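User: I'm preparing a small set of examples for a lab meeting where we compare how different chains pack in three dimensions. I only have the primary sequence for this one, and I'd like the structure in token form so I can line it up with the others. Please keep the answer compact; I'll paste it straight into my notes.
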Amino acid sequence: MTDIATQIDNDVKTNDVVLFMKGTPDMPMCGFSGRSVQILQNLGVPFKGVNVLDSAELRQGIKDYTNWPTVPQLYVKGEFVGGSDIMMEMFQSGELKQLMADKGVA
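Assistant: Understood. Below is the structure token output for the 106-residue chain.
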């Protein structure tokens, strides 16, 4: 495993909820990241935001890690949930809130 993959793996496995995003939760750098942060804040779920703009290696590394082409990416209890479109659909249907409850995060 490369250093960046090890770092990603560590973030995913040591935090209940991790959002790999462009920018930070306080200052998202794209609309999709901003929407994802708003969804998590609306649910009242504590989460770690990881700014993929910090390094090109991290930005590519997270895509390789999940084999998912876009950012943001949400992980709950070590499992990849999806990007902002999936988060939005799950939020609107109540599925995301249920997932958080099932995982003991909410």
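A couple of notes for your slides: The chain is about 50% helix and 15% strand. Residues 3-102 form a domain with the Glutaredoxin fold (CATH 3.40.30.10).

User: Perfect, thanks.
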